[in-house]
Amino acid sequence: MKGVYFHKASRRWMACIWRNGKNEYIGKYETEVEAERAALKARTEKARRKPSTLTNPFEVSHAQG
Questions:
Q1: How far lies 22's CA from each of 16, 17, 19, 25, in Å?
Q2: Could you tell me the residue ranges of all domains in the chain?
Q3: What phi and psi, each to the nearest 5 degrees, are found at residue 63?
Q4: Is the pTM of this model over 0.85?
């Protein structure tokens, strides 16, 4: 899975994600599954916080031409 790596020195699985152009460390976990869950959760939270490009997404333009 993207963002999950085995850290040889600590013999644990590490989770990281890209945020704001930087690699953000999430944590080290005993199992690969735990690291995958943490990375997925962090990516999901990141997507929720992403600001909309629209000023008001519910605003509809009714321009008459």
A1: 10, 8, 5, 10
A2: 4-49
A3: -70, 130
A4: no
Tell me the three state secondary structure of residue 5.
Answer: strand
The pLDDT tens digits for 4-30 are 999 999 999 999 998 888 999 999 999
pLDDT in tens, 30-45: 999 999 999 999 988 8
Amino acid (one-letter) located at 65: G
Output DSSP code: residue 64.
-
